[in-house]
Amino acid sequence: MNCHDIVAYLKSLADVEIAENSQRYFKTGKGEYAEGDVFLGIRVPLIRKSVKEYRETSLSEINKLIKSEYHEVRLFSLLLLVYQFSKADRAHKAKIYHLYLKNIKYINNWDLVDSSASYIVGAYLFDKERTELYDLAASKNLWLRRIAIISTAYFISKNDYSDTLKIAKILLNDNEDLIHKAVGWMLREVGKRDKKVEEKFLNHHYNDMPRTMLRYAIEKFSKEQRKSYLNGEI
Fold this sequence. Notes:
There is one protein chain. By secondary structure, the chain is mostly helical. The protein has helices at 3-12, 16-25, 44-53, 59-65, 71-87, 90-102, 110-114, 117-125, 131-137, 142-151, 153-157, 162-170, 177-193, 195-205, 211-217, 223-230. The termini are far apart. The relative contact order is 0.07.
């Protein structure tokens, strides 16, 4: 199936009211983090269902889809890459990973990052050298920095926390709320598997963390422990 047929199919699922709500929810207004992004208005479950129907789409066609002006088409392409990566052999995984990085500038909203980064970047780099993540973490681009920290969710799932903690430290003083939330989320995921590891990190850094990051990180702690961190009583 070629990209034009897929886009036509996705457009047939469009809903104007959903699109208008999405434009507001994903902050597409002037000066907002997703300024100018265009939505068709398709609910995510429908997009995921469509991925299964078009799962045999070639990488050359996905490479065209990921550049689409439409948010949902880009999301579709990323979910398709995630699906194909999960089924691929080592060589095809490498092709998907490199296609992802080649088109990284089009992965430009939090849902696009969160639905793909750990499943492709994290999964690919798990048994490899991980310098790429630190280059992303140092980027001036908000979404590349978010990819860096969210990618480590795959490592966390394998009980490997070192890169999550190192990148969290790099991003402690980030100016973007969406990075604060992402870092706090990943620290919370570490804590779900090994609370002592998370507590050790927090005990060294909680006074330097943005409040949003800290609140996300301690969300699963007891009420008393959350209060202690927030009041600086650790």
